[in-house]
Amino acid sequence: MSTVDPRHYALSIQWSAEDQAYVVTVPELPGCQTHGSTHEEAVRRGQEAIAGWLSAALATQAAPPPPRTLASSSA
Predict the structure, then answer these.
(1) pTM
(2) For the chain, what is the domain count?
(3) Contacts of 31 (CB under 8 A, 6+ apart)
(4) Mind listing the pLDDT tens digit of every residue in the chain (75 residues)?
(5) Cα dist from 3 to 8, 42, 51, 75, whole Å
(6) Residue 30: helix, strand or coil by DSSP?
(7) Where residue 41 sits, what CATH number does that domain have?
(8) Rounded CA gap, 14 and 2, in Å?
């Protein structure tokens, strides 16, 4: 199984007024969510959550979904 760079996955970060925290979701990885009290903490914890998700997939020999990529356009 090839190694996937965790930094290639998208982080969706939204402020939750109810929780008073930034909520992080990784669209490509089912169930991969976390939060942080600051935007910086949310990003760091999001990257940690991705690494943990990918590590668990490798441990079970499951192929992780590929990261999304931007479509190239020719000008």
Answers:
(1) 0.85
(2) 1
(3) 53
(4) 457 888 999 999 999 999 999 999 999 999 999 999 999 999 999 999 999 999 999 999 989 999 988 875 555
(5) 12, 24, 11, 32
(6) coil
(7) 3.30.160.250
(8) 31
